[in-house]
Amino acid sequence: MTQPEYVFHRVEDARELERLRAIEQVCDAATRRRLLATGVKAGWTCLEVGPGAGSVLGWMSEVAGPTGRVAAVDISTKFLGPQQPRNVEVRQADVRTAPLPEAAFDLVHARYVLIHLPDYQTALSKMLACLKPGGWLVLEEPDFSASRGITGEAGQLASVAKVNQAIKTMYDMLGMDDALGLKLPSVLQHRGMRKLTVEYEAPLSSGGSGMATMMKMSAEQLREKYLATGGRRSARIPAARSATPPRCAASPASSRPTGGSRAMAWWPSPPRWIRSVRSPNV
User: What's the whole-number mean pLDDT along residues 17-28?
Assistant: First the structure.
């Protein structure tokens, strides 16, 4: 069966790079904190799934050092640049079908990757399979169902609600789950993982904040796809993009799991993190 393409696949490169860098500015500090909680250090072998513009990949390379190794896999590597550190290997491929070595990595990390896959379980299986016994899987995934306007003018709140509904409808049409971040702990438990630690973030984001700006960029780039979800009524969606954002809004929650012998998971409005033990020899 043909898989739907990545929702940001056909957007202008310059604007997409700007959006990816905005995500880095908003999320990288928390991501580094979560990765450090695994004990990552010099000499580790790491896998970054969906490196985007490459900030986390570069940081992993520095931490792993010359005695470590960092691999990256993404369906598009055009934002990573031609030159990478000597301990980094970049492969342009789909994680669901890429020939990844089994039991090879101490740490596997993915941020906002599974949320874009209707068959995310396939990707999750590949990531778990390539972890060493006792290795860590760190997942950061959003729960867009948690996003809503809280204070602001009635028109602003209505616009935010329309965009949120368009996001849900688009995900439903593509066979994806806009609330995946909320469900990842259960998914990991059903795979036999234990001792899960879940971090769930639902930050209050004021209009003009980093999170609000990041979501605005996404709405602008996905405008036509959002409009396609609601017929004539969706013509009112652009108001959510052009209007001043509500004074306060709950951002998508996020969760992040990791897995390997151990797994961690994070969700930003989506839940934000889970740590779980996958195998008994941890």
Answer: 91
Note if the pTM is more than 0.85. no
Are the C-beta atoms of 33 and 10 separated by less than 8 Å? no
212 and 205 Cβ atoms separated by less than 8 Å? yes
Strands (E), the chain: 45-49, 69-74, 88-92, 105-111, 131-143, 148-151, 204-205, 248-250, 253-258, 262-269, 274-277
Residue positions counted in the chain:
282
**Residue 109 CB contacts under 8 Å (≥ 6 apart), including other chains:** 31, 35, 46, 47, 48, 49, 56, 60, 137, 138, 139, 140, 258
- Give the residue among 194, 44, 4 at the shortest CA–CA distance from 36: 44
Helix (H, G, I), strand (E, B) or coil at 49: strand
Q: The tokens of 114 are what?
A: 């599974």
Mean pLDDT across the stretch 240-263?
A: 46
Express each pLDDT in 103-142 by its tens digit. 999 999 999 999 999 999 999 999 999 999 989 999 999 9
Of 212 and 278, which is predicted with more confidence? 212
The rounded distance, in Å, linking the Cα atoms of 218 and 220 is 5
Q: What is the CATH number of domain 13-148+177-206+251-277?
A: 3.40.50.150
Q: From CA 95, how far away is CA 74, in angstroms rounded?
A: 7
**Placement of tokens 């799991």 in the chain:** 257
Cα atoms found within 13 Å of the Cα of residue 10, Cβ hemisphere only:
6
For 158, other C-beta atoms within 10 Å of its C-beta total 15
